[in-house]
Design a protein that fits this description.
The chain is mostly helical and about 475 residues long. It is about 60% helix and about 5% strand. The chain contains 18 helices and 6 strands. α9 packs antiparallel against α10 and α11 runs antiparallel to α12. The longest helix is centred in the C-terminal third of the chain and has 44 residues. The chain is flat and about 100 Å long.
Length: about 475
C-alpha cells in the first residue's frame, strides 16, 4: 500500500471525525507536512495508518478519528487559510489539546486571537498552564517561521544543498542538535576566555617589561588571543560559505557583530606594519591601542547563544519611542533641578557654582546613583535634592513598565521560534515550504494596521470565515 493508493483519483482523502465527514485535497494538506493529516499521505501500510487515526476503511478509503467534531472546523479553516482562530466561547484547554493532537503549533494562531488566547490560558484557575507559558507566544511569529523555511528551501537548488543546510542549521541555531550545542558552548568559552585575558593583561600583576622598560604582550595571553581570533574568523567564514543568501548575509545584526569583533585585530596588524615601515606614521600606534580596547565588543557575540540578549536587542530596537520618552523626562528633570540647585547653592557650595556642574549633580541624583561627590549644604538645597530624587524615581519607573512588557513579549516569541526551528526535520529536503494565502495574509496585515490606528481591542473572527472553510 502506497501513499498514492490512499487517495482518490483526484488526489483527495476522505476523513470522518466523529461523524463529521469531509474530503480534503492532498495539495492543501501537504503545505503543512508536520501535521497529522499530512503525515497520512506518506503512510505505506495499514499499520502505519492506524498509528495516526482510530480506524481505516480500506474499501471506502476513509479515515476515522474519534475526536470532537465541533472543533474540527477550526482545523479545516487552518488548512485553507494557514491561520488558526479561536472563538470566545471555546475552552482554551480543550482547543489546545485538539490542535496538539492534529499536530498544529500554537504560533499559527492569528494575531487577532493570540493575545486573548494566551491571557485566558494563563489565568489563575489554569495553573497547569503556567509551567508551559514560556512555550507559548504572545504574538504572531508566522513571518519569522516563513522566512526561516524560505531560507532553508534555497539550499535545494544549490550545490551540496543538503550538506550546507545541515551545517547552516548547526552553526546558526544553537540547540538544534547535540553537535550545535557543543559548538555553542565552545564558542562561549572562547569569548569569555578572550575577554578574561584582555582584563588580566591590563593588571599590573601580569605586566611584562622588556629590556627598555616598556610593556610587552604576555606570550600566554597572546596565544589565547590568536586562538580566539582564529576561531572567530573560522566561524564567520563558515557561516558565510554555507549561508543560503550571500548577498543578504550581513543584513543579520549577529553577523555584523561577528565581523566587528575580529576587525580590530586585523586593523591593528595592518597599522603596526604601516607604522614600522614609515617612521613618520608612528602616531598610528596610538590608534592601534584604541583598537585593542575595541575587543570588548566580542562580549556581544554571546547574543547568538543567549535568548535573553537577543530579546533585549529586539526590545531596544522596537522601544525607541519609550526610550526617547525616558530620555525626554530625564532631560526636563535635569534641566529644571539643575537651575534650582544653582540658584540656591551657588554662593554656599563650591561644587555647584555653574549650571553645567549642576547638570552632573541632577543627573546623578535623578538616576538614584548618588556618588556623593557634590551635595547641597543648605536646607533649601537639601529639599530640592529630595524632590529631585523622588522625581527621578517616578520618571524612570513610568516607561520601564512598557519596556518590560515588550521584553516579555519578545522573549516568549523568541523561545517559541527556537522550539519551532528545533522541531523541523530537513533530512529529506523541503518538497514545499509552508505557504499562506496571499489574500488572507494581506487582509490580516490591513486588519492589524486598522486595529492599531483605532486603538480598539481585537475581537475574535466571525463565524463567516469558518463557514467558508466548510464549503
Amino acid at each position: 500500500m502506497t501513499g498514492q493508493s490512499l487517495m482518490n483519483v483526484n488526489g483527495a482523502i476522505r476523513i470522518n471525525v466523529g461523524g463529521f465527514k469531509r474530503r480534503l485535497l492532498s495539495n492543501i494538506l501537504s503545505r503543512f507536512p508536520e501535521t497529522r493529516l499530512a503525515r497520512l499521505l506518506r503512510c505505506e501500510s495499514k499499520e502505519s495508518i492506524l498509528e495516526l487515526c482510530d480506524d481505516y476503511d480500506d474499501a471506502e478509503k476513509e479515515f476515522y478519528f474519534d475526536r470532537n467534531p465541533a472543533l474540527f472546523p477550526y482545523v479545516l479553516n487552518f488548512y485553507n487559510t494557514g491561520r488558526l482562530h479561536v472563538m470566545g466561547e471555546l475552552c482554551v484547554f480543550s482547543f489546545s489539546q485538539e490542535i496538539e493532537y492534529w499536530g498544529i503549533n500554537e504560533f499559527f494562531i492569528d494575531s487577532c486571537c493570540s493575545n486573548t488566547y494566551h491571557c485566558r490560558k494563563m489565568e489563575p484557575d489554569g495553573e497547569e498552564w503556567e509551567d508551559k507559558s514560556e512555550e507559548g507566544s504572545t504574538t504572531s511569529s508566522f513571518d519569522e517561521i516563513l522566512e526561516f523555511y524560505n531560507d532553508a528551501a534555497k539550499f535545494d537548488k544549490q550545490p551540496l544543498g543538503s550538506v550546507r543546510r545541515k551545517i547552516w542549521l548547526m552553526l546558526d541555531n544553537p540547540g538544534y542538535s547535540v553537535l550545535s550545542r557543543i559548538i555553542s558552548l565552545f564558542s562561549i568559552l572562547v569569548v569569555l576566555g578572550s575577554i578574561a585575558t584582555m582584563c588580566m593583561n591590563s593588571m599590573s600583576e601580569f605586566a611584562l617589561l622588556d629590556s627598555e622598560g616598556l610593556l610587552q604582550e604576555d606570550p600566554c595571553f597572546e596565544t589565547v588571543e590568536h586562538f580566539g581570533i582564529g576561531w572567530f574568523t573560522f566561524e564567520l567564514v563558515a557561516r558565510f560559505v554555507v549561508a543560503p543568501d550571500l548577498l543578504h548575509f550581513f543584513e543579520n545584526p549577529l553577523n555584523v557583530i561577528d565581523l566587528i569583533s575580529i576587525l580590530p585585530f586585523y586593523l591593528t596588524l595592518l597599522i603596526n606594519l604601516v607604522a614600522e615601515s614609515s617612521p613618520a606614521l608612528a602616531n598610528l600606534g596610538r590608534v592601534a591601542q584604541v583598537l585593542r580596547l575595541m575587543r570588548i565588543i566580542r562580549i556581544l557575540k554571546l547574543a547568538r547563544h543567549s535568548t535573553g540578549l537577543r530579546s533585549l536587542g529586539a526590545t531596544l530596537k522596537n522601544s525607541y519611542k519609550e526610550v526617547g520618552l525616558l530620555l525626554l523626562y530625564l532631560a526636563v528633570g535635569v534641566s529644571f533641578f539643575s537651575v534650582m540647585a544653582y540658584t540656591i547653592e551657588k554662593e554656599e557650595n563650591d561644587g555647584l557654582t555653574t549650571i553645567p556642574a549642576c547638570w552632573w549633580w541632577a543627573t546623578v541624583s535623578m538616576t538614584t546613583v548618588g556618588y556623593g561627590d557634590v551635595v547641597p549644604v543648605s536646607i533649601a538645597g537639601k529639599l530640592t535634592a529630595s524632590a529631585c530624587i523622588l522625581a527621578g524615581i517616578l520618571v524612570v519607573v513610568l516607561p520601564i513598565t512598557l519596556i518590560f512588557n515588550k521584553f516579555s513579549l519578545f522573549y516568549k516569541r523568541q523561545k517559541q521560534l527556537e522550539i519551532a526551528i528545533r522541531s523541523c526535520d530537513f533530512d529529506e529536503g523541503i518538497k514545499e515550504a509552508p505557504s499562506v494565502n496571499l489574500r488572507n495574509y494581506y487582509a490580516h496585515k490591513v486588519k492589524s494596521l486598522m486595529a492599531s490606528l483605532s486603538n480598539m481591542s481585537r475581537s475574535s473572527p466571525s463565524e463567516h470565515s469558518l463557514n467558508e472553510s466548510l464549503q
